[in-house]
Specification:
336 residues, alpha+beta, Alpha-Beta Plaits, 2 domains, 6-stranded antiparallel β-sheet, 3-stranded antiparallel β-sheet, 13 helices, globular, binds iron/sulfur cluster
């Protein structure tokens, strides 16, 4: 294995105290150029069909290049300074009454709706805030993959260097959006949209947090929440999603203005829209999350701002006492 340490140049322009080695195994590299395309700070340049780290000192260790490389040919290692977050103070554990509340919400959602999996507590940790005591995974995951793992019981905290999807990582405020994603160019490259105008509109119409305003995403089963969530995500069948919408409207009768596109399902539609608007939203999933997780075709997603949860849980209990069992018993089905 030929591993070239391409970061031996001067470190004068390094944007942070932490510096990284970018090593490329040129024997396994296929020259696909994804590392060059996805690096948010243009560390790489393709030369004679192979990537060269021409600006290694700009690297800030996001590991987007390593996450995108189809042949796992890139290693990014901390060279100088501390690993991010090692010395950060830990957040206090949640008070017992909050732990009890979230367990009760989870139990109600599961029992009344008949959910197969746990609802997921989502926390976006603002830059500089204490971090909760939640494990950082060894592997890099896409944000949607972390949500799907949390619904099965895993608790996961991911700083930028554990996120594998540059789109979601930037949208959620952990990194800058790579130029080729911001311009729409890569969506055309991957045949996801018809032309550059459509790609740019898709990018412009979706919310996106300011770069580096969020230090980590935290996802846990709701019953095991380790920090205050901002959004609760539920993976549900359409009928279960319908009852959640009705629960939210039970006391007000309002209709929902839902915002879905099939692009950026988990980061935008399930998380960021409820987070930024304070309104419940639904998502039918997206190309990325359906291609990279075990989510089945008959499932969809609902993101509920945590402030709405008392209303949703109370409404759901009311509906569960009569309307839900009646509907599920098909009481208006005519005799065959
Ligand atoms: S770790 Fe991030 S900043 Fe560094 S070379 Fe890879 S993609 Fe670029
Ligand atoms: S993404 Fe990996 S395989 Fe593709 S050019 Fe970069 S190092 Fe080589």
């Amino acid at each position: 294995m030929t591993v070239i340490d391409q970061s031996a140049a001067t470190a004068a322009n390094t944007p942070s105290a932490v510096r990284y080695d970018v090593a490329i195994d040129l024997e396994s590299c296929t020259g696909c150029g994804l590392c060059e395309a996805f690096c948010p700070v243009d560390v790489f340049e393709m030369q004679s069909g192979l990537p060269v780290a021409v600006q290694p000192d700009l690297c800030w260790g996001c590991e987007t290049c390593a996450g995108q490389c189809p042949t796992t040919s890139i290693r990014v290692n901390c060279r100088e300074g501390a690993e991010p977050f090692v010395d950060r103070p830990k957040a206090n554990p949640l008070p017992a009454e909050k732990v009890g509340l979230y367990r009760e919400w989870s139990r109600t959602l599961k029992e009344v709706l008949g959910l197969r999996w746990s609802p997921v507590a989502i926390s976006l940790i603002p830059a500089g805030d204490p971090l909760p005591d939640v494990p950082v995974p060894e592997e890099r995951l896409r944000y949607c993959q972390s949500l799907m793992a949390a619904r099965r019981g895993r608790s996961i905290m991911m700083p930028a260097n554990r996120h594998a999807c540059p789109d979601g990582t930037a949208i959620l405020g952990l990194t800058e959006l790579p130029a080729k994603l911001a311009s729409g160019e890569l969506y055309i490259l991957f045949h996801k949209l018809h032309d550059i105008e459509a790609a740019q509109r898709m990018v412009l119409e979706r919310p996106c947090l300011e770069p580096r305003t969020i230090d980590a995403t935290v996802v846990t089963p709701l019953e095991n929440a380790a920090t205050e969530p901002q959004v609760i995500a539920v993976v549900a069948q359409p009928e279960q999603a319908m009852w959640l919408l009705m629960s939210s409207s039970y006391y007000s009768g309002h209709r929902h203005e839902l915002n879905a596109s099939g692009y950026n399902a988990q980061c935008v539609e399930t998380t960021l829209l409820p987070y930024t608007t304070g309104k419940l939203n639904v998502s039918f999933g997206c190309y990325g999350c359906r291609a990279s997780s075990d989510i089945s075709d008959d499932m969809m997603f609902i993101g509920i701002p945590v402030d709405q949860m008392p209303t949703v849980i109370s409404g759901l209990r009311e509906l569960g006492s009569r309307a839900i069992p009646q509907s599920r018993n098909k009481i208006y089905l005519p005799p065959m």
